[in-house]
Amino acid sequence: MNNLKNRILIIGHRGASSDSPENTLKAFQKAIEYKANYIEFDLFKSKDGELVITHDPELSRLTGRSGFVEDSTLEELKTLDFGEGEKIPTLLDVINLTKGKIGLCVEVISTNIGEKLVQLLRESDLVEDTIISSFNFKELKKIQKLEPKFKFASLIPYDVKVYNNPKWNNWKIKKQAIDRAAKNNFSFIHPHYVIVDKQLIDYSHQRKLRVNVYTVDVKPVIRRLIKNGVDGILTNDIIAAKEVINKIK
After folding, report:
1. pTM for the full model?
2. Which residue blocks in the chain are alpha helix, DSSP H?
3. Which pairs from 237-242 meet CB under 8 Å and 24+ separation?
4. 3-state secondary structure of 231
5. Could you tell me the residue range of the domain that residue 99 belongs to?
6. Counted domains in the chain
7. Which of 12, 98, 178, 239 is the most buried (most CB within 10 A)?
């Protein structure tokens, strides 16, 4: 565990979302203040083609207004309150706030946004400081063809129906996901913490993949994952994760 502080990435899930509205500039500013290594956020395309940051395809949970992000223009989205008076940020808003202060971990939700995403990050000289992640493997491959210098991360979900079904070979499912990411020259896998054990971590490392787990806020779980060898923690509670790292010897 030598040099643990420098080895483990702390990735603020939707920013410092434990004490600020998720995926807002306020949450991202807090993550900078808390000295996380990266902020993670979710990227959509608005009706008029702008790249905007929020988690849900539908607006009601966060804003109280019905409707979908992709059916709304940026002007319409900017009229909504996403918590504590915060407005929906664009990717450019986030770049302007964070450049030179914290890394970006972009979860791609909308399809066919690669060209604009690559353009904005190239213009800002942030390609090599950015992780691009998604559950949509095809979308990751399309973006990789446009800009192979990004660090790519394949998200691996916890599917209750699969992992609780004795008919499924759970290790085979996880191994296939790891092998696919390695074969495509990705840098990371981002598995749900529930499916992460030492076998998954060790095999990922054998395949030259680093393992950042999501989304973990409970200190004993963070401690166990770090002792098993994970490389990064996606967390809503940056302070809690840093406290665990500081106490591990």
Report:
1. 0.96
2. 4-7, 25-33, 60-63, 74-77, 91-98, 114-123, 137-146, 160-163, 170-183, 198-206, 219-227, 238-247
3. 237/18, 238/10, 238/12, 238/16, 238/18, 238/30, 238/31, 238/34, 238/36, 239/18, 239/34, 240/18, 241/10, 241/216, 242/10, 242/34, 242/35
4. coil
5. 4-247
6. 1
7. 12
CATH, residue 56:
3.20.20.190
For residues 4 and 27, give the distance between their C-alpha atoms in angstroms, rounded to a whole number: 25
55 catalytic? Reply is yes
The conformation of residue 147, written as its DSSP 8-state character, comes to -
Please give the torsion angle defined by the CA atoms of residues 116, 111, 108 and 45, in that order, rounded to the nearest 10 degrees.
60
Q: Choosing from 55, 190, 192, 205, which is the catalytic residue?
A: 55
Is 13 noted as a catalytic residue in this protein?
yes
Joined together, the tokens standing for residue 51 give 């790249």
Reading the block at residue 212, the tokens are: 């950042």
Structural contact between residues 236 and 222, judged by C-beta atoms closer than 8 angstroms: no
SS3 21: coil
Condensed to tens digits (0 to 9), the pLDDT of residues 166-178 reads 767 789 999 999 9
Residue range 47-74, pLDDT digits in tens: 999 999 999 999 999 999 999 999 999 9
